[in-house]
């Protein structure tokens, strides 16, 4: 039992009893002079809600009520937060030890029980109980941390839908995932399932360039008070920031700094890794590839720790891209370390069956090889990219592929494609995803290629 005691200058009493503050944002309970954290926040939040519910239903303004309905059972407590991970018998024993601790602190009158290991009631008047930031937020916090049990098997259909959507998303079938998850889940007993669905929908919206859906999800999950909800909200926020990379990359990067700091303090390694990976992309977009390396390297290590292989392969590719840009700034061509990082990315993809939703590694490696004059390697990577682009739904990847194919075909014609047609299509697709910089590049190449074609014809 982790309990931190702090002596306050003043102890406020109501009807001769200490006051209770449950603050789910700060993650602590203030009970008279004592500060409690971790599992005791869940315990006292539940006791407070049960007490206030009983008071509301009976119309009481402050008297305590010892009726059956005002007690919290060990079974109910065992479904919430850290208590979910304890054996049923351990729940009651830990609370009994806590009651003994309350007695030693002179606070025995705060909690009454029906059997010290079985059920408990807050013996304070409603006037002495405060919930922060407010009651609705505390209720949402508890709801997001609570399991309702899995006696009914309605969850099987939802689990199948989520597992199939996860697999489809890894294959680049973003539009089908958006369609699969349009209807809400039928089982409401496990809040983490709803969070999983929201994250899958957000990632699918990101890949399918459905900005409106992504923003709607982000706004819905932005201020979820529970740990799982905060993780999903952080990941969706990072995706929204990355979507703004074309308009205001510096502003988008700044918006992630406090989020990353909060995640560091909170210990949410998985969400932190995702935020750092996006931060690295934004730093690179602002012309700071060395800063991008710092973010991506930490993200890659964290993804490796948590076993997030789809994201690990992305971080490895991002490191390759940063190194390429660092070398380019120094006037140097891509070196073998760049291609080693690309192949590490592809190795993770092959071994773990991930990365089929993007062709960026192959497209970039083909471009770098083309720029270095290594035509065999360039054509090898281009063929690998084409195989992926044909089956994924990423508009951005399709545009990047067509742009590169046009440049290569114009430089060394094979008769397999029409460079001008590819460029016109690429320009339109870049504008669809609001990448005006790349669209302008395609437009410049159209004019240059058209002039050269006119010169040859004359």
Task: List the SSEs and their pairings.
Layout: E1 3-5, E2 13-14, E3 17-18, E4 20-23, E5 28-31, E6 34-37, H1 39-58, E7 72-73, H2 74-77, H3 88-104, E8 111-113, E9 119-122, E10 129-132, H4 135-145, H5 155-170, H6 174-180, H7 191-207, H8 211-221, H9 227-243, H10 249-266, H11 269-285, H12 289-306, H13 309-329, H14 336-352, H15 360-371, H16 375-389, H17 395-411, H18 419-432, H19 436-457
Parallel strand pairs: 4-10
Antiparallel strand pairs: 1-6, 2-3, 4-5, 5-6, 7-9, 8-9
Describe the structure in your own words.
By secondary structure, the protein is an alpha+beta fold. The protein is built from 19 helices and ten strands. The strands form three sheets. The protein has a five-stranded mixed beta sheet. The N terminus is likely disordered.
Please state the average pLDDT score.
86
Number of helices: 19
**Tell me about the biggest sheet?**
5 strands, mixed
Number of domains: 3
* Global outline: elongated
Strand order of the largest sheet: 1-6-5-4-10
The counted number of beta strands is: 10
Q: Kindly name the structural category.
A: alpha+beta
Please mark out the parts with pLDDT under 50 across 5 or more consecutive residues, or reply none: 1-12, 59-69
Query: What oligomerization state is this entry in?
Result: single chain
Strand content: 5-15%
Percent of residues in helical segments?
55-70%
Cα(first) to Cα(last) distance is: 87 Å
Whole-angstrom Rg: 28 Å
List the secondary-structure elements in sequence, H or E: EEEEEEHEHHEEEHHHHHHHHHHHHHHHH
């Amino acid at each position: 039992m982790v309990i931190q005691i702090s002596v306050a200058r003043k102890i406020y009493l109501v009807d001769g009893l200490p006051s209770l503050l449950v603050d789910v944002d700060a993650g602590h309970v203030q009970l008279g002079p004592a500060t409690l954290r971790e599992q005791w926040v869940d315990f006292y939040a539940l006791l407070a809600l049960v007490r206030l519910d009983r008071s509301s239903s009976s119309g009481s303004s402050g008297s305590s009520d010892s009726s059956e309905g005002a007690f919290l059972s060990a079974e109910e407590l065992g479904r919430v937060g850290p208590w979910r991970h304890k054996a049923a018998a351990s729940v009651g024993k830990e609370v009994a030890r806590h009651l003994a601790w309350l007695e030693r602190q002179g606070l025995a009158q705060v909690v009454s029980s029906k059997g010290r290991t079985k059920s408990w009631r807050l013996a304070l008047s409603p006037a002495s109980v405060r919930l922060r930031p407010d009651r609705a937020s505390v209720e949402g916090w508890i709801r997001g941390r609570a399991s309702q049990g899995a006696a009914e098997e309605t969850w099987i259909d939802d689990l199948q839908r989520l597992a199939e959507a996860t697999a489809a998303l890894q294959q680049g079938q973003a539009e089908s995932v958006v369609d699969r998850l349009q209807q809400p889940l039928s089982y409401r007993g496990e809040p983490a399932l709803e969070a999983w669905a929201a994250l899958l929908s957000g990632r699918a919206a990101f890949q399918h360039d459905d900005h409106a859906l992504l923003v709607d999800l982000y706004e819905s999950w932005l201020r979820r008070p529970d740990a799982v909800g905060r993780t999903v909200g952080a990941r969706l926020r990072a995706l929204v920031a990355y979507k703004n990379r074309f308009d205001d990359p510096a502003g988008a990067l700044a918006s992630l700094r406090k989020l990353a700091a909060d995640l560091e303090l909170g210990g949410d390694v998985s969400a932190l890794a995702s935020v750092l990976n996006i931060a690295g992309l934004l730093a690179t977009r602002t012309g700071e590839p060395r800063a991008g390396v710092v973010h991506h390297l930490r993200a890659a290590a964290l993804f490796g720790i948590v076993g997030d292989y789809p994201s690990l392969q992305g971080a490895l590719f991002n490191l390759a891209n940063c190194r390429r840009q660092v070398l380019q700034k120094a006037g140097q061509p891509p070196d073998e370390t760049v291609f080693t990082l690309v192949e590490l990315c592809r190795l993770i993809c092959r071994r773990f069956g991930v990365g089929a939703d993007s062709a960026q590694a192959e497209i970039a490696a083909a471009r770098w090889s083309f720029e270095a004059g290594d035509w065999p390697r360039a054509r090898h990577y281009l063929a690998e990219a084409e195989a992926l682009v044909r089956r994924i739904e990423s508009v951005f990847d399709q545009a990047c592929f067509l742009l590169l194919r046009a440049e290569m075909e114009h430089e060394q014609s094979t008769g397999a494609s029409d460079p001008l047609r590819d460029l016109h299509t690429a320009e339109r697709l870049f504008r669809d995803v609001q990448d005006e910089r790349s669209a302008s590049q395609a437009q410049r190449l159209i004019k240059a290629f058209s002039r050269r074609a006119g010169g040859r014809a004359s």
